[in-house]
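look at this:
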Amino acid sequence: MKHCMALAALALAFPNMAVAGLEICNQTSDEHAVAIGYQQDGQWISEGWWNIAPGDCKEPVTGDLKTRYYYIHASATGRTYNGEGYTFCTQSDVFTIVGDENCVSRGYDSTDFSQIDTGETATHHTHTIVEAAAKQDGGKQDNGQKQQAAAAPQTGSGLTRGQHGEPYTDRLMFHSCDVFDGVEACKFIGDGWRFFAYYDDPTPSAYLRQFEGIAPNTPMQVTGDLMSYGDRTVHLAITQMEPLWGEDPYAAINAALQGDWVSGEEGGEESLFIFGSEMHSYHDSVYSDTYFLNIKSDCPDSAGMGPVMVQTSLRYGDTYCYLIDNYEGGWLDLILMGHEARVSYRKVN
């Protein structure tokens, strides 16, 4: 059973959403010239240029993505790109350059790029260029946003809504504020997607740190901008978020689900690890898939019965609805709606 609502909502937010490939969108007030870098067959390759007008998008990479990490340099007249220290070879004319070393001695420029993480299994990804990614010529950093964030009240981050992407607001389940793939971020789960607000990218770290002690599965009203998405993963710029204390009718179920589970009385072949609203599945101790969980009153296949656990696969995007028949006494009994197959798990911690 396919779950299309979340994807459809994001498609409305990004009307030029690519079916596959790497798409670059420009949400600044200036035209940007864009170059990309990536690894192919063990070689680092850089390509340019794509001229992207304000409000427009270009697709430097077409077809299914073949690698997780891409790199981008974007520049506009009167501005230089504030990259992250990943250097590639470039030149002023249109180019495709193999190799990222000895750029100057080979007659090229050595140029600073930033990394784009498309996710572990993404076939498409959209990256948005925003004003915060540039600085004025002369090397003077525009620190107005950081100064404002430091003095911002707890109720808001100091960011201006609509400045960094498509305005967005929804109720999400808080996961944690931690280090993910080497980068500090606050993570949320909602409607079969995972959302990341990265520290100072652009949500101020001082604002996000206020939420580090909040318990997993706390409902949060999150308002901000959708910056980019891919691999069922969304990059958020947060202007405001508010814990909705006591507003989860399924808090007891969510609390009981946390921890390690194994199938069958003797352990069986499948094991689960549930943290927050995210579940990792293993078969014979080998990682299988990650699922985003949503406890609801019912689903279309449950004929009004509930509560149900809706599982959305990170790897395939498929959604499954299970009737929660029991979650007490150290046992979790689920019935797959539409198939009436019953599965049971025993808690092991």
Notes: Residues 5-13 form the longest helix (9 residues). The radius of gyration is 22 Å.
